[in-house]
Amino acid sequence: MSGTAGAGWRLAEVAAALGAGCEGAGDLIVTGAAEPATAGPDDLAIALSPAWAEALGRGRARAALLWAGADWRALRLQGAILVPRGRLAMAHLTRFMDPGPGFAPGIHPSAVVEGGGEVPPDAAIGAFSVIGAGARIGAGVRIGPQVTVAPGAVIGAGCLIHAGCRIGPRVAIGARTILHPGAVIGADGFSFVTAEPSRAEIARARLGAGPDMPAPEDARWHRIHSLGGVEIGEDVEIGANSCVDAGTIRPTRIGRGTRIDNLSQVGHNVVIGEDCLFAAQAAIAGSTVIGNRVVAGGKCGIADNLTLGDDVVLGGATIVLANVPAGRVMMGYPAMPMAAQIESYKALRRLPRILRRIAGAADRSVSKSGGTD
Amino acid sequence: MSGTAGAGWRLAEVAAALGAGCEGAGDLIVTGAAEPATAGPDDLAIALSPAWAEALGRGRARAALLWAGADWRALRLQGAILVPRGRLAMAHLTRFMDPGPGFAPGIHPSAVVEGGGEVPPDAAIGAFSVIGAGARIGAGVRIGPQVTVAPGAVIGAGCLIHAGCRIGPRVAIGARTILHPGAVIGADGFSFVTAEPSRAEIARARLGAGPDMPAPEDARWHRIHSLGGVEIGEDVEIGANSCVDAGTIRPTRIGRGTRIDNLSQVGHNVVIGEDCLFAAQAAIAGSTVIGNRVVAGGKCGIADNLTLGDDVVLGGATIVLANVPAGRVMMGYPAMPMAAQIESYKALRRLPRILRRIAGAADRSVSKSGGTD
Amino acid sequence: MSGTAGAGWRLAEVAAALGAGCEGAGDLIVTGAAEPATAGPDDLAIALSPAWAEALGRGRARAALLWAGADWRALRLQGAILVPRGRLAMAHLTRFMDPGPGFAPGIHPSAVVEGGGEVPPDAAIGAFSVIGAGARIGAGVRIGPQVTVAPGAVIGAGCLIHAGCRIGPRVAIGARTILHPGAVIGADGFSFVTAEPSRAEIARARLGAGPDMPAPEDARWHRIHSLGGVEIGEDVEIGANSCVDAGTIRPTRIGRGTRIDNLSQVGHNVVIGEDCLFAAQAAIAGSTVIGNRVVAGGKCGIADNLTLGDDVVLGGATIVLANVPAGRVMMGYPAMPMAAQIESYKALRRLPRILRRIAGAADRSVSKSGGTD
C-alpha cells in the first residue's frame, strides 16, 4: 500500500519536487513509494543508505531514491534520485505524493454554520460540523466532518482541521496549522482550590513531609474557570486526541512551528515557544513556560510553574520537576542531565552486587577497627 | 483576551460576588480580568501577592483584585477588592465572569432523540447529538453538539456535557457533573483471559521470575464483557478525552465532588471516593479502590486491585504498585513515601562518585585483610 | 446494576452457554449477574473462590457461579454452575448476557454514505456517521453514531465500530475487530526533519552528551507525510480514544487477536504481532517491531526502532529503551529484567542508610590506610 497518483509522475518530475537531480530514465513513471524489497515495478523504492542495497535486489523497482554517492547502475536500476539528507528528501517526497484528506470543497449541506459565522468560498466544511456564531474561518481552511468550532473562534488561512476536533471559545489558531482527529483546543483548565488549605497544598509546601493533620472540615473543590482561551501560532500541529486547555485570564500559547504528537496534554496558561517537538503522550502542567526548539521524546511530563530554556532536549519518558537551563539534555524521573542519569542507572544496576561486596569488606573493616554503627 | 461581560460589571457588584468588601470607586465598570502588566483600563487586574505590585504600575488597570492588606491607594488604583485567599477568590471571580459554553437552549433541530428518550423543556441538546431510547435527561442539563447518550443512560439535573462526549449504556451521572469534550463514559473494560494460564499470568504469580516455558497451544484472549455500567456522583468533572470504563457486574464508581483531568483512564470496577483530584493522564487500573480526598499530580498510575486510603497524596508521575495507607504522601516509580523517595534519589545521584571512592577504599581494605570475593 | 435479559434465562441454559454442568434447579430463572453480597433473588451470584462464600450468605441469590468443588448445597443455594477456571467462565457468561450496543440495524437516515461507498444490507450505520466514497463495509458490520470512515477504507465483516471513531484513508481492518469510542486509526505519523541536523539529532547520536553548539540557522520542522495507512488483523480491539498512526510508505500493522486498551498510541510503521495485550496508555514509538503474545501493563512505553521478541511481559509503567529478547519479563525505567529491577529497587531503598554506614566505615579505613581520594 502506498501513495497513489492517478496516472503517476515522471521520475524527473519527482526529482524536481525534491530539488534534486535525476539520474537515468527521467521519463519513467512512478505511482508511489515503497520499501525496496516489496516495491513493484511502478514504485519508487526508498533506499536511503547502503544497508538497503541488498533489499533492492529482491524487489522489482526500476527507480529508487538513494543515498548520495550510490552507484544506481550497479544496483540495476533504470533511474534514480540521489539525495544527501534522506529524511529531508522523504519530507519533500511524501508531501509531493500525499493525495490529502480528500475533503470535498464547500460547505457540506448537513453542516451548521450559525448566524454570523464567516466562511470564505474556498474553505471546506465537512458533514455534521458546527461553526459557531461569529467564528471566523480563514481562506482555504479545510475542516473535516463532525468538527465543533465554538462561537467567536478564529481559524487562520490554510488550516487543516481533521474530523472530530473540538475548538472552544476564545481560541485563535494561526495560518496553516493542522489539528489531527479528535484534538480538543480550549477546554477548561484543571484548576481547583479548597476554601481552606488542603492537605495536598500543605504537603507540597512542606516538600512532602506527611501531615498528620485531620481531614479538613470542608474538602470541596472550587473550580477556577478558564476565561483566557488559547492562541496557537502558524504552522503548528496538534496530535490526534490531544488537549490544549484554555488559560485562566490570558491565553495558553503555542508558538509558530511547534509540533505536538497524539494524546498530549498542554495545561492552562502554558507558554510553548517556536519549533518545539513533543512526541506522544506529553504532558505539560499549568503555567509552565517552555523555550524555542525544545525536543521531547514520548511520554515526557513537565510539572507546573516551571521554566525550560531554549534547545532543551528530553529523552523519552523524562519527568521534569525543576527548571531546566537552555541547551540541557535531560533524562529520567526525576530528570537529570542525561550523562549523569545514565551513570546513575549503571551504578544502580551494579548496586546489589557491589553492596554485598562492599558490605562484606566494610564489615571486616569495621570489625578490625572496632567501630560500631 | 479575557472574559467579556457585555456592558461589564460595577466593581462593587464583583466584590459582592466574591463575598468581599469593595474599596474605593465601587461604580467603576470592569469588563474582564487580566494580568497586571497587560491590563487595560476596563480590566480588573489580578495581583494576588506583593510580587505583582510592580507589574500593576506598568499596566493601565484602574481596579484590581489584591492580597489582603494591600495599600491600593499607593498602587494608584481607583478601586480594589482585597481578599485573604487569592485562589479561592479567583474561583468565585472566574465563575462570575464566565459567559459559559453558549449552548443554545432547546433541542437543536438536527439532534436525534430516540423514542422514549426524556428531555425536559429547559434542557439544551446540541446539533447532531443522539439521545438513545429511554435515556433520562435531568432538568437544566446542557448537552453540546455531537454527543452520544446511549439508550437508558441517566444524566442528572444541571449536568454540562461538552461536545463529542460518549455516554454508554448503564451509565448514571449525578447532578451538576461536567464532562469535558470527548470524554468516554462506560466503554467496555479491558479484561481478558486465555483458556489456559498465560505466560503473563504465571510470571505475575511468580513475582517476575521469567518462565522458560513454551508458548501456550492456544494464546487467544477471551474478553470479559462489561455489564455493570458506571455510576458518577454529583459535582464531578471528567476531563477532555478521558475514559471511565464500565464495571463487569457492578458499576465503576466515582464519588461526589471528584475531579479528573484530561486524558485519564479509570478502569473497570474502580471505586473512587469523594473530593479527589487527579491531574492529567492519570491511570487507575481495574478494581482498585480509592478513598476520599486523594490528590494526584499528573501522569500518576495506580495498578489494579489495590486500595488507597483517604487523604493520600501522590506526587507527579507516581506509579503505585502496592496498597497505600490513609494520609501517606507518595512519590516515584515504584511509589515510596515522598521523604524516603527524595532521600533515595539524592543517594542515587551521589552514587557513582561514592561507589568509586568506596570501591577504592574497600579494595585497599580487602587487600589488607587478605579477603577475596 | 447488571446485565438485563428481558425475561431472563434458565440456569441450565446459562450453564450450557458456559460449557459447564448445571447443579440443582436448572429451571431457575436468572436475569443478570451480581456480586454475592448485593445479589438479588433473580441474580446469578458470582463467587469464584471460597473467599466469596461468606458474602453469599449475606446476599439473596438462589443460584451462583462457583469454584470447582464448591458444596453448593451447604451454601444454601437452589442451583449452581461449577467451573474450573473462573475468569474464563466469566468471559463466556458476560458474552452470553451482554445485550450489545443496541445499534439499530440499517443505515440511519441522517448518515452520509458518499457515492461509491458499499454497505451491505445487514450492516448498521449510526446517526451522523460519514462513510467516504469507495469505502467497503463488510457483512454484519455495526457502526455507531458520529463515526468517520475515510474514502477507500475497508472494514471487515462483523466489525463493531463504536461512536466517534475516526478511520482514515488507506486503512484496512480485519473481521470482527472492535474499535471503542473515539479511537483514531490512520492519522498522520509524527515524523519531522530539519533541513540541517538538529540539536536533538546530534544529542541522540552522541548518546546524550550535551552539545554546546549554537542554535541552527533554520530550526523549522519539515513533516514526513504518512502514505502507508494501517492494516489491522482480525479479532483485534483498539481502546477508547486510542490512536494508531499511519505508516510512511508501508502500513502500520497490528496482528490478529491483539488487544490494546484506552488512550494508547501506536506510532507510524509499528508492527505488532498476534495475541498481544497492551493495557491503558501504552505508547509504542515509530517503526518498533513487537512479537506475538507480548503482554504489557498500563502506561508502558517502548522507544522507536526497537524489536521485542515473542512472549515478552512488561510490568506496569515499564519504559523500554533497548531491544528485548523473546520471553523476558521486564520492568522499570529504563526496563530491566524484573528480578534484577526488584533487587535494584530494594538496594536503592536501603541505599541512604547503607551509604551513611559504609561511608563512615570507609572513612575510618581510609584514614587508617593513609589513602587520599
Explained architecture:
The structure is a homotrimer of 373-residue chains. Chain A has 373 residues and is an alpha/beta fold. The first copy, chain A, has five helices and 39 strands. In chain A, helix 2 links the parallel strand 5 and strand 6. Mean pLDDT of chain A is 92; it is low at 1-5. In chain A, strands 8-10-13-16-19-24-27-30-33-36-38-39 form a twelve-stranded mixed beta sheet, covered by helices on one side. A ten-stranded parallel beta sheet of chain A has the order 9-11-14-17-20-25-28-31-34-37, with no helix packed on it. Chain A has a domain at 9-97: MurE/MurF, N-terminal domain (Udp-n-acetylmuramoylalanyl-d-glutamate--2,6- Diaminopimelate Ligase, Chain: A, domain 1, 3-Layer(aba) Sandwich). The longest helix of chain A has 32 residues, at 338-369. The first copy, chain A, is 17% helix and 26% strand. Chains in contact: A-B, A-C, B-C. The interface between B and C is large, with 87 and 90 residues.
Q: State the CATH class of the domain at 9-97 in chain A.
A: Alpha Beta
Number of strands of chain A: 39
Q: Which fold name fills CATH's third level, the topology of the domain at 9-97 in chain A?
A: Udp-n-acetylmuramoylalanyl-d-glutamate--2,6- Diaminopimelate Ligase, Chain: A, domain 1
Overall radius of gyration of chain A = 27 Å
Query: What is the architecture of the domain at 9-97 in chain A at the second tier of CATH?
Result: 3-Layer(aba) Sandwich
Distance between the termini of chain A: 70 Å
Task: Assess the beta-strand content of chain A as a share of residues.
Answer: 25-35%
What structural class do the secondary elements of chain A suggest? alpha/beta
Mean pLDDT of chain A: 92
Flag low-confidence runs of chain A: 1-5
Oligomer state of the chains in this structure: homotrimer
Main sheet of chain A, how many strands, which sense, barrel? 12 strands, mixed
Strand order of the largest sheet of chain A: 8-10-13-16-19-24-27-30-33-36-38-39
User: CATH superfamily assignment of the domain at 9-97 in chain A?
Assistant: MurE/MurF, N-terminal domain
Number of helices of chain A: 5
The residue fraction in helices of chain A comes out at 10-25%
